[in-house]
Amino acid sequence: MSTPTLPKAQKAIIFNTKTNILSLKLDHCLPLINPTSHLIRVHSTAITNGELTWAPFTDWPVEHVPCYDVSGTIIIPAANSKFKEGERVYGRIYAQREGAAAEYASLLDSETARVPGGLTMEEAASVPMSGLTAWQALFEPARGNLSYPNEPPYVNNAGELLNPNVAAGKKILILGAADAVGAFAVQLAKLAGAYVVGTASGRNESFLRGVGIDEVIDYTKTSIQEYIVGQEDRKFDFVFDCVGGKSMLDGWHAVKSHGAYVSIVPGFEEEPKKVVRPENVRSGFFVMDSRGEELEQIGRFIEKGLVKTGVDSVWKIEKYREAFERTGTGHARGKVVFRVAWEE
Q1: Degrees (nearest 5) of the Cα angle 300, 285, 65?
Q2: pLDDT means per 10 residues in the chain (344 residues)?
Q3: CATH 3.90.180.10 domain extents, the chain
Q4: What gap in Å lies between CA 245 and CA 268, rounded to an integer?
Q5: Which of 53, 89, 174, 214 has the fewest other C-beta atoms within 10 Å?
Q6: Which CATH superfamily is domain 131-285 in?
Q7: How far is Cα 181 from Cα 199, in angstroms, rounded to an integer?
């Protein structure tokens, strides 16, 4: 197979880690690849809320390309990979590496999955971080472990849904249920048969009902403590925090003894010191791992119509300021996506 002709430079959004300023660069270098990674032509990429605050905790260079959820077409495949040139793929780039807000990106073979049938490339770019975070929070043994002692729900090669309702009888609370991660968590928990309650503003209740939630606590009217007070049976086997702040603290009042409480918000490990914790609660902060095999399984749920994706809005990369501002409002319902390849 002949090596494709590549441009010498590419268009990319650049985040300057010294000045914290975003800009659009027209002559950025192409990403480096190695035998374990694919070079992909980026179609779409999604913003993760708060990602520009990660610089102090990374080894980013002064000029860094942001955005790590990506969909695109393989131009040069990794060595000995099941994925081939020309395939439509998606995945989550580990955030220590250069992101995908550019015309080309490098995606590890282990991070890669095929784009599910029936999904647009913009929708595909909205899935990886949110879907993988929700999946790992709910089902990994060190986290929610909702399916224990069974395997989580999955779709086999014949397209059959196996292990549904493995969490029947369990109750979970999702703090921030209407955001991108929370909405995935609602749907995956319902696949497992759990009873799902989420916090959100009243304006998001109809959206959450549409993805299967059982109850919505409108945090503008009712606090978690008010929901729980005097009713021990309302406490939860698992609390999943997607928002932090006061809700993170209130979540401790809602988790049962011997339950689990997991957060994706930094600072979680310090917050329990401010409240009286129930006994024997398995708890912790975590950052998702990018695993193509798990993403492939999430894609099968999507193909069968069991899980819906969430795109808030789609932007050209020239509108990078407006897109990041939209994400920063905290009111985006779903992911804010850049479509890079408008000509396709």
Answers
A1: 70
A2: 84 97 98 96 97 94 98 98 98 97 98 97 98 97 89 94 95 96 97 97 95 97 93 94 89 93 85 72 93 98 96 96 92 91 66
A3: 10-127+310-339
A4: 9
A5: 53
A6: NAD(P)-binding Rossmann-like Domain (3.40.50.720)
A7: 13
